Inverse folding.
């Protein structure tokens, strides 16, 4: 099988996208390569090229893209176009989406170290993500990979990126390494993702990841990440983080995070909307 | 809130009368106790009263040899033994029967009873729910959840069931569960807590829950946002026993007549009431219904001709009243109202005990503490979820 390194070169791709001045490759992972470019109509765009491994994966990707493209809000990168095309006899999917100018939340956290992000900023980030999740839930979508790397902080915008199969495919290498597990990022994945319990996956899976992210933003540490992946997974499955109330935080914030981090999805907030209601009860003055 | 009749032996006339009097009620029909022809004939009558009709397909024991259950058409040419059982096709046939022949208000899907959860059971449950969702588009669909006490008391197992169930593509869950040690009133706080905890999650996931085979202790489920319970005449339709669906009912038929008391939630035989009344304790019992008025107003209840039909009608009317009285409170306040109600029940029971009244084998006295303990723990642990009801 031809590697994506040789399949997705700028020289080979340029003739396929005459409307885009492809500038540089900005990302690569699993079966996906991302380029930055200038589109004649849309301006700065991210061009994603995905190489599905079979027909059903391709169909699923297109189905999810159809739904994702309907997520029309500032919390998401706008999808302008997507479709199939053939490249050297292989079926590939291309996605042209809005290029988000800014930095990832991970970059932002690292830049600010050793300090934590200001609480007002944390508040905006979590509130925006919950609002984004309300919209994704309404479309029956589950992101499954909420983590600082997939959150872009742009001018006055918090953008949740990498929806749909693109994200799944991105994580294929991880899935192959840990074949018994589902697609996920250790340290942010919910127990049902780690155990690959597909029938349990729902918006509550994303709320678990959001709980971890919130914990990390407030304390500067991910409560589950260890030095090795198996340890991280084990900790996620079997360990409850120290409640924030024991770290001097107000009970309202501790309750919110505890609810999101329930091991069993049915005890987490039942919807993103309910989670947002709970979030609004947080006493920020006590932080 | 809704109260449904759970069809038991010899209940057709009672159902007919009850539904006529209570248009807001309905019935869950049972193939175990009713011939197909008779059922289809009566359904038309019940429908005319404007009541809700449900049909429990009673797939609890797929290897059942009960002729009456097997006489319903969806079992034709069906073989669970060979390992080639086609759950999807079976489910389609159940749905077809419920809609075409009974015109049910909502479809209850077949569900197998289990006392130990494994992947094949989980897969079958999901497959049946998916089939129901794709086949039925003009009315609500309920998944049957039929569980034994070992599953419910094992947190990992029970959580797995509920974690999956909340994502099923159905509108409701018909929940029947066998009590620990087959005790009629549950004395196990953990068990009661687990039912409250799980049903709250199901309700919060946007699904309606019907608790089948309910009895007076089931009134506490108003606390977790449940809107509908179903109860019947004999005790075997007031607590679930999966064995009743695999072979002939071997329960000893005790024809003793009982009076159900709404103030204490206990059941007493008239001679016991007579002794209490003679000792000046009559005012502790009640409230009366049109069926029990004569009994409660008598100086000596044992002398009143109090027969099974009156006892059943009184029980069903009173349990319906007790259940639906929570309706006037917002859903997220009902747990507190249930708590107040149970404390009153405790007080009545304690006062009667203090006065030397022995509640006997069917008294609620022995179950009240575990019931309140379970409710207290549930209200504390799921406080913010209860607020979201």
């Amino acid at each position: 099988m031809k590697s994506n390194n040789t399949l997705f070169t700028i020289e080979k791709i340029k003739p396929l996208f005459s409307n885009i001045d492809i500038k540089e490759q900005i990302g690569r992972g699993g079966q996906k390569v991302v380029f930055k470019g200038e589109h004649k109509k849309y301006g700065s765009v991210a061009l994603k090229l995905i190489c599905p491994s079979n027909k059903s994966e391709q169909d699923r990707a297109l189905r999810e893209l159809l739904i994702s493209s309907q997520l029309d809000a500032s919390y998401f990168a706008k999808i302008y176009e997507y479709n199939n095309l053939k490249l050297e006899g292989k079926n590939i999917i291309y996605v042209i989406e809005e290029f988000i100018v800014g930095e990832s939340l991970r970059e932002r956290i690292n830049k600010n170290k050793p300090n934590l992000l200001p609480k007002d900023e944390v508040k905006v980030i979590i509130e925006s993500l919950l609002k984004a999740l309300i919209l994704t839930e309404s479309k029956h979508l589950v992101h499954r990979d909420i983590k600082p790397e997939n959150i872009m902080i742009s001018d006055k915008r918090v953008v949740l990126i990498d929806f749909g199969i693109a994200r799944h495919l991105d994580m294929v290498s991880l899935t192959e390494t840990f074949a018994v597990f589902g697609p996920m990022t250790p340290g942010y994945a919910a127990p049902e993702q780690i155990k690959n319990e597909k029938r349990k996956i729902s918006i509550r899976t994303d709320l678990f990841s959001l709980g971890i992210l919130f914990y990390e933003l407030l304390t500067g540490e991910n409560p589950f990440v260890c030095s090795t992946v198996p340890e991280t997974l084990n900790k996620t499955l079997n360990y409850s983080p120290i409640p924030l109330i024991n770290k001097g935080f107000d009970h309202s914030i501790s309750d919110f995070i505890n609810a999101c981090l329930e091991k069993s999805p049915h005890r987490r907030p039942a919807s993103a909307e309910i989670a947002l209601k709970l979030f609004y009860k947080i006493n920020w003055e006590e932080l | 809130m809704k109260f449904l009749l759970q069809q038991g032996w010899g209940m057709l006339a009672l159902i007919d009368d009850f539904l006529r009097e209570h248009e807001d009620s309905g019935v869950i029909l049972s193939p175990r106790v009713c011939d197909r022809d008779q059922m289809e004939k009566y359904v038309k009558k019940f429908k005319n009263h404007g009541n809700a009709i449900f049909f429990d397909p009673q797939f609890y024991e797929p290897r059942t040899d009960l002729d009456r259950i097997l006489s319903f058409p969806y079992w034709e040419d069906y073989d669970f033994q060979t390992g080639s059982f086609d759950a999807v096709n079976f489910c389609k046939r159940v749905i077809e029967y419920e809609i075409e022949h009974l015109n049910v208000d909502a479809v209850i899907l077949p569900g197998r009873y289990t006392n130990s959860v494994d992947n094949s059971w989980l897969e079958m449950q999901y497959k049946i729910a998916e089939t129901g969702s794709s086949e039925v588009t003009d009315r609500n669909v309920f998944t049957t959840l039929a569980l034994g006490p070992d599953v419910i008391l094992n947190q990992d197992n029970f959580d797995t069931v509920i974690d999956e169930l909340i994502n099923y593509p159905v509108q409701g869950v018909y929940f029947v569960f066998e009590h620990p040690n087959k005790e009629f009133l549950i004395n196990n706080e953990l068990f009661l807590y687990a039912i409250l905890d799980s049903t709250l999650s199901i309700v919060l996931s946007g699904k309606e829950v019907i608790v089948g085979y309910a009895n007076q202790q089931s009134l506490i489920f108003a606390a977790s946002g449940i809107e509908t319970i179903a109860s019947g005449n004999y005790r075997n339709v007031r607590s679930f026993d999966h064995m009743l669906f695999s072979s002939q009912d071997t329960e000893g038929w005790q024809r003793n007549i009982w009076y159900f008391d709404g103030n204490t939630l206990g059941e007493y035989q008239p001679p016991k009431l007579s002794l209490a009344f003679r000792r000046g304790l009559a005012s502790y019992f009640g409230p009366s219904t049109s069926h029990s008025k004569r009994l409660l107003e008598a100086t000596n209840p044992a002398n009143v001709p109090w027969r099974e039909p009156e006892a059943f009608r009184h029980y069903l009317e009173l349990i319906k009243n007790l259940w639906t009285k929570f309706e006037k409170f917002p859903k997220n306040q009902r747990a507190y109202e249930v708590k107040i109600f149970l404390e009153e029940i405790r007080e009545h029971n304690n006062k009667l005990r203090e006065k030397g009244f022995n509640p006997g084998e069917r008294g609620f006295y022995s179950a009240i503490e575990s019931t309140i303990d379970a409710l207290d723990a549930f209200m504390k642990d799921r406080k913010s979820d209860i607020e979201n009801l």
